[in-house]
Specification:
Layout lengths: L11 E4 L6 H19 L5 E6 L5 H14 L3 E7 L2 H11 L3 E5 L8 E7 L8 H13 L12 E4 L3 H10 L4 H7 L2 E5 L9 H7 L3 E5 L19 H9 L4 E5 L6 E4 L5 E2 L2 H12 L6 E5 L5 H8 L3 E5 L3 H11 L3 E4 L3 E3 L9 H15 L3 H7 L4 E8 L4 H11 L4 E3 L4 E4 L5 E6 L5 E8 L2 H15 L2
Parallel strand pairs: 2-3, 2-4, 3-6, 7-8, 7-9, 12-13, 12-14
Antiparallel strand pairs: 1-5, 4-5, 9-10, 10-11, 14-15, 16-20, 17-18, 18-19, 19-20
Helix pairs in contact: 1-2, 1-4, 3-5, 6-12, 9-10, 9-12
Length: 454
C-alpha cells in the first residue's frame, strides 16, 4: 500500500484500478472486520454494506462480502443505499458496524470506502489509526475465523429511513400545499429513496436521472456549471422547488421557483431556520467554513451556534458535546440528530418543505429574508508548508481574531472572515471567506492570496 492514499476520518477514496485496487479493498475489509470484532467483543459481528450506485460498486461489494465471510462476519447486503441510510440503519437495527462503498462527489472513475462504528457514527481519528495499522500489517490467515460468516439481503432500509423522518415533520401541512418538485438523483443512491419520499409527502414529483446504475448524467459535484440541464427542466416544469443530490445523498442543493440554483450554503441555513424557529434557545453546530448566516439565525432565536473543525465527524462530535438540536456543513450537509448524526439530504428536503409550508412563501422569498453575505471559495494543490502560510496570514492580518483548531480562521470586526485549511479528502489547501459585500471579500481574498504566495 506504498504511495497510496490513507484512510482518514472522511474515508478512503481513489481511482478504481489505480489508487483503489482489489488488494486495498481486501486489506481494509479485513482490518475493519478485526476492529469491529474487538470493538463489539463478538467473534461473529454483523456489518451492513451499502453502495452509492457507481458502476464499480458491484465488484467492490462482492470483494467485501467475500472477505467478510472469510472473517466470520454476518454481512447484511443493502446494495444501493445512501450514506445517511446506512448510518440510520446501523443504529436502528443495532448492527455492529457498516461499510459504505462511495466516493461521494468525486468524478465517476473514483470509488471509496467509509466505515461506520457500532455507535452508528463514522470511525473516529483514533479508530482510523487502528484500522490503518491493521491494514498495513496485513492480517494473516490464522486470524481469519474458521467458521464462515453469512450474507443476508434486506431491502426495506429506504422505507424505514423515510418513515422515521416523516414522524418528525408536519406531514399534513406539507401535503395540504400540493407542492410540485423536481429532484436530480444523478442515477445514484437517492434513486432508491426519492420516489417513496415524495409519494408519502403527497407531492407531484418529476424525477431527473433516477436510475441507480451509476451512469452519471453530469459531473457529480452539485454546482451550477454541472446542473444547467437540471435547472432548465425545473423551470420548464414550473416546479415550486428543485432538489439536487450528490451520489451518496449526504449533500443537498436547491433550485428555486425561477429555475435558479441556490448556493449550497442555504441548505443548512434554511434547515437551521426551520428548526430553531420552533425550538428557541436550543443550540446549533456548524464548521468553521460554513456561512455566518446560521450564526445570525441562531442569535435571532436566542440560541447559540458553535463552530468546529471542518469534517462531518468533527461537527457530529461538537453536536454531541453541546447537545445541539440541528447542525451541518456549508457544502449542503444537514445534520438533524433526532434522525441521524450524519449529513442527510432527505432530512434537509423535509425540513425545507416544512418551512415553505409554514411560511407560505416561495423559496426565493425565504432566501431574501435571510442575512445577506457574499462567500468566496478557492483551492490549490498543496505546495510548501501550511504552517508557513498560517504564520504569514497571522502576521499580515494582526488585527483579526484567530482560531487555529483547523488551519487558521481570521475573524474581522465587520463580520468578514477567512478560513485556510487542508482538505480532508483531497491533497489540496482550501481558502474560504465571507463578507457583507462582494467588493470586500474580493479585496480580502486578493490580499490573502498575495500574502500566502509571496
Amino acid at each position: 500500500m506504498i504511495n497510496r492514499p490513507k484512510l482518514n476520518v472522511s474515508g478512503y477514496r481513489g481511482i478504481w484500478g489505480d489508487t483503489l485496487t482489489k488488494e486495498i479493498v481486501i486489506n481494509y475489509t479485513k482490518a475493519f472486520s478485526k476492529f469491529i470484532k474487538e470493538d463489539s467483543n463478538k467473534k461473529n459481528p454483523t456489518i451492513l454494506i451499502g453502495r452509492d450506485g457507481r458502476e464499480s460498486g458491484p465488484i467492490i461489494k462482492e470483494i467485501i462480502l467475500n472477505e467478510l465471510q472469510n472473517m466470520g462476519v454476518h454481512a447484511i447486503d443493502g446494495d444501493v443505499l445512501p450514506t445517511p441510510t446506512v448510518l440510520f440503519s446501523v443504529r436502528k437495527h443495532k448492527y455492529d458496524g457498516g461499510i459504505i462503498i462511495t466516493a461521494s462527489h468525486n468524478p465517476i472513475e473514483y470509488n471509496g470506502l467509509k466505515f461506520v462504528n457500532k455507535q452508528a457514527l463514522f470511525t473516529t481519528g483514533e479508530e482510523v489509526e487502528k484500522i490503518n495499522k491493521y491494514a498495513e500489517g496485513n492480517i494473516i490467515n490464522n486470524e481469519i475465523e474458521i467458521s464462515k460468516g453469512s450474507i443476508t439481503e434486506y431491502q426495506k432500509f429506504p422505507e424505514e429511513h423515510i418513515d422515521e423522518i416523516l414522524k418528525h415533520i408536519n406531514l399534513d401541512l406539507i401535503k395540504s400545499k400540493k407542492f410540485k418538485v423536481v429532484a436530480d438523483m444523478i442515477n445514484a443512491s437517492a434513486s432508491v429513496m426519492d420516489p417513496y419520499l415524495f409519494k408519502q409527502l403527497g407531492i407531484e414529483f418529476i424525477p431527473i436521472n433516477g436510475t441507480p446504475d451509476g451512469k452519471f448524467a453530469h459531473k457529480p459535484e452539485p454546482i451550477r456549471e454541472n446542473l444547467i440541464n437540471t435547472m432548465e427542466i425545473s423551470l420548464k416544469s414550473e416546479a415550486d422547488l428543485g432538489f439536487v443530490h450528490d451520489p451518496d445523498a449526504d449533500r443537498l442543493v436547491l433550485i428555486d421557483e425561477k429555475g435558479e440554483i441556490i448556493f449550497e450554503e442555504y441548505s443548512v441555513a434554511l434547515s437551521v431556520e426551520s428548526i430553531l424557529s420552533k425550538n428557541k434557545g436550543e443550540k446549533a453546530v456548524i464548521n468553521l467554513s460554513t456561512s455566518q448566516m446560521s450564526i445570525d439565525i441562531a442569535k435571532k432565536y436566542n440560541s447559540e451556534c458553535i463552530s468546529t473543525a471542518v469534517g462531518e465527524p468533527n461537527v457530529v462530535i461538537g453536536m454531541i458535546k453541546n447537545n445541539a438540536i440541528i447542525g451541518g456543513e456549508g457544502n449542503g450537509g444537514v445534520i438533524y440528530p433526532k434522525i441521524n448524526l450524519a449529513r442527510d439530504s432527505f432530512v434537509g428536503i423535509c425540513l425545507i418543505l416544512e418551512l415553505l409550508a409554514e411560511r407560505n412563501k416561495t423559496v426565493s422569498e425565504l432566501i431574501n429574508e435571510l442575512p445577506k453575505y457574499y462567500m468566496k471559495k478557492d483551492k490549490w494543490p498543496i505546495k510548501g508548508s501550511l504552517e508557513e502560510m498560517i504564520s504569514k496570514l497571522k502576521k499580515h492580518f494582526n488585527d483579526a481574531k484567530t482560531n487555529e483548531i483547523d488551519g487558521i480562521r481570521l475573524d474581522f470586526p465587520d463580520k468578514t472572515w477567512l478560513h485556510l485549511h487542508p482538505s480532508n479528502t483531497e491533497p489540496i489547501i482550501r481558502l474560504y471567506g465571507e463578507a457583507k459585500t462582494k467588493e470586500r471579500i474580493d479585496e480580502l481574498f486578493e490580499d490573502a492570496r498575495g500574502v500566502i504566495f509571496r
